[in-house]
Amino acid sequence: MRIEDLDSPRVKAWAVEQAMEDLRWLGLDWDEGPDIGGPNGPYVQTQRLELYRDAFESLRVSERIYPCTCSRSDVLAAASAPHAGHEGPIYPGTCATRSATDAESLNDQPFSWRFRTTPTNRRLNDLCVGESDLNLATELGDFVIAKSDGTPAYQLAVVCDDHAMQVTEVLRGDDLLPSAFRQIELYDFFGWSVPQFAHVPLVIGPDGRRLAKRHGDTRLATLREQGVRAESLLGLLAQSCGLRPSPDPTTAGELLADFDLVKLPHAPFEYRDQLA
Fold first, then answer.
1. Which CB contacts under 8 angstroms, 24+ apart, belong to 127-130?
2. Across residues 227-248, what is the average pLDDT?
3. Which of 12, 15, 46, 86 is the most exposed place for a label (fewest CB within 10 A)?
4. Mind listing the pLDDT tens digit for each residue in 150-203?
5. Residue 93 shares a structural domain with residue 124
6. Chain segment 43-100, per-residue pLDDT in tens
7. Do residues 275 and 232 make contact, with C-beta atoms less than 8 angstroms apart?
């Protein structure tokens, strides 16, 4: 269990404990984490900032990052490339001619650090999506990797953490498939082994968009308060994953025996208040 809380303005102090309570309610547990400790701690990213510093310095000294003063609106206005799925516009390279040392002359001008991508054709053999190819430089572009003070953004932090914690398998939503290619570039730079990725279909609302607040309150805590049994929710999720033919109540333990990603459908699962 790792708490990824670097996006500090959006992190609520109570959310960590609630997330762990929700997972316990579902019958899930973990061998290491902020509540029980373990050999790879600390398990909260804001407590691991010193551990990211060496990686950031390696990138800076090697000129694989540069200070970028572009705002999101600047990128949107300047970019001519179309959006790619859930991604925003491709960064047009406005600040790419800068060197890392140029950060010293920016004074109080706000900036972030961008990673220089390479025009290498990368191939990913995903356990769910299958084989896919992508040229990071031309199809996604340079990406933000840290704040001006070196505090890492998502891509750098998770690569450092997964390597340090000896993570060998990463399973997440297929909206993050482009992130895998960004992270492969980082693994390649550091000379670290790349984990096996599995990107699974999302849960969506009736409008076809990713399930979110706009579809109502579907938080696990809310379902618990409404009296929904964990076994009922797990039954619905098991059916959505192709693990069971019907949404009959089940437990996490019962699903372990024949769990197989091969059974997972490639289409997203539409949630329509089946538990209401």
1. 127/171, 127/196, 127/197, 127/198, 127/261, 128/174, 128/198, 128/199, 128/200, 128/201, 128/261, 128/264, 128/266, 129/174, 129/177, 129/199
2. 95
3. 12
4. 999 999 999 999 999 999 999 999 999 999 999 999 999 999 999 999 999 999
5. yes
6. 999 999 999 999 999 999 999 999 999 988 888 887 654 544 557 789 999 999 999 9
7. yes
Non-local (6+) Cβ contacts of 88 within 8 A are 72, 75, 76
Q: Which residue has the tokens 């900036």?
A: 111
Distance CA 259, CA 269 (A): 18
Residue 147 β-bridge partners: 112
Read off the pLDDT of each residue in 224-238 and give the average, rounded to a whole number: 94
- Tell me how many helices (H) and strands (E) the chain has: 9, 9
Angle in degrees, 0-180, between the axes of helices 49-61 and 177-190, rounded to the nearest 10 = 70
pTM: 0.92
Residues forming a β-bridge with 121: 135
How many domains, the chain?
3
pLDDT tens digits, one per residue of 119-129: 999 999 999 99
Pick from 154, 143, 126: nearest CA to 84: 143
* Domain membership of residue 16 as a residue range: 1-42
**Tokens encoding 158:** 């998770």
If one compares 10 and 272, the residue with the highest pLDDT of the two is 272
Q: Is the dihedral of CA 25, 29, 33, 36 positive or negative?
A: positive
Confirm whether 275 is domain-assigned. no
Instruction: Give the E-state strand segments of the chain in sequence order.
Output: 65-68, 112-115, 121-126, 130-135, 143-147, 169-173, 196-200, 203-204, 269-270
82 and 179 co-located in one domain: yes
Asked whether the CA dihedral 160, 164, 168, 174 is positive or negative, the reply is negative
3-state class of 229 per DSSP? coil
Q: Same structural domain for residues 103 and 74?
A: yes
